[in-house]
Design goal:
InterPro entries: DUF5700. It contains 18 helices and 5 strands. It is an alpha/beta fold and 331 residues long. Strands 1-2-3-5-4 form a 5-stranded mixed β-sheet, sandwiched between helices.
């Protein structure tokens, strides 16, 4: 079932048709009823399935109707049938219009959120965002056991990324004429968008960014936040090496930046979240919007807050004047 919730700025569609058709086949299997070719064709004709197939082809991965049939008819797959039914029922309660509207308040004026959300039963247990050429992006979510709150938080996080990407022309105008090394560094400062998206998904700096998760996830986040100063300094060295021309190939930059993604959440998440939440609390949403369009401002605003806090006994790491100067260099 596809449920569209739209306004001019938010066009967010929840399409559960692939999962529903897959579950109909599993229900037949569980009842020892024959699964006929028409059942399979209804599944293969769904938009989420077609997009998943196209995405795997674009990634150079083998994905055929026959291999999907084999996956769906495995005993392990069948054992998840009841869990998937319950989860899908929860997800379909989500208010997509309200979700999109809330995320939009965490984005600069002019942002749009146009996306489809595909909860899917599929062989690989991953989630991602992908778009066909000329189409709005889709958020593919493996249909794992989760609450409605968890689902909405995940979708909100991805919608923030999609909304920010809709402002590319404004961002490009800000970067016009800047040296290539500065543009490259700004591109990687954009990694803090993971933390900014966590803040937007939580809806408030006063709410734990893993509010909808279990105690283990919250404890893991709290422990990772203890590395804030070390992670900031490591990211600072990465940016300095890019600006100084010591690190130029994208492959090498990605290798150095990989730890900041982390197995679950690294410095792009924790450092980005802490800076964004402090800026939003101290200076308000308009200042945070400035940072979203020009990520250099996130570092500057954060430094002002951290220096004031450190003067009162805190021990927050700050970005060096050398880094700030290089980021604002016109040569």
């Amino acid at each position: 079932m596809a449920t569209a919730q739209t306004t001019p700025s938010v066009q967010l569609t929840l399409d559960t048709s692939e999962a529903e058709q897959a579950l109909q086949i599993l229900d037949k299997e569980a009842a020892h009823q024959a699964v006929n070719p028409e059942d399979w064709q209804r599944l293969f004709a769904t938009t989420p399935y077609q997009w998943l197939k196209d995405r795997e082809a674009a990634m150079g991965r083998e994905f055929t109707d026959e291999t999907f049939k084999h996956f769906l008819l495995q005993p392990e797959t069948l054992s998840k049938r009841a869990e998937w039914h319950d989860t899908l029922t929860n997800l379909e309660k989500a208010n997509m219009a309200a979700l999109g509207a809330n995320v939009l308040t965490w984005l600069p004026p002019g942002a749009t959120i146009h996306a489809r959300v595909f909860p899917e039963i599929k062989p690989v247990h991953n989630s991602f965002v992908w778009a066909k050429q000329g189409e709005s992006p889709a958020i593919f979510l493996y249909l794992e056991k989760q609450s409605q709150d968890k689902f909405e938080n995940t979708v909100a996080h991805e919608c923030h990324h999609i909304g920010l990407a809709s402002l590319e022309k404004q961002q490009d105008a800000i970067q016009a004429g800047l040296p290539l090394n500065v543009k490259k560094a700004m591109e990687w400062i954009g990694g803090f968008g993971e933390g900014e998206a966590m803040l937007a998904a939580a809806g408030s700096a006063d709410r734990h960014p893993h509010w909808e998760d279990d105690g283990v996830a919250r404890a893991r986040w709290d422990a990772d936040m203890m590395h804030f100063n070390v992670d900031l300094q490591s990211i600072q060295q990465l940016l300095m090496d890019i600006l100084d021309g010591k690190l130029t190939p994208d492959t090498e930059i990605r290798k150095r930046a990989a730890p900041f993604w982390g197995e679950i959440q690294g410095g792009w998440y924790t450092v980005g979240y802490e800076m964004a939440s402090l800026v939003e609390k101290q200076y308000g949403r308009s200042a945070l919007n400035e940072c979203l369009l020009d990520p250099r401002k996130l570092l500057v605003f954060y430094n002002q807050i951290a220096e004031q806090a450190d003067a009162n006994g805190a021990t927050l790491a700050t970005w060096t004047p050398q880094l700030i100067a290089k980021l604002n260099s016109q040569n």
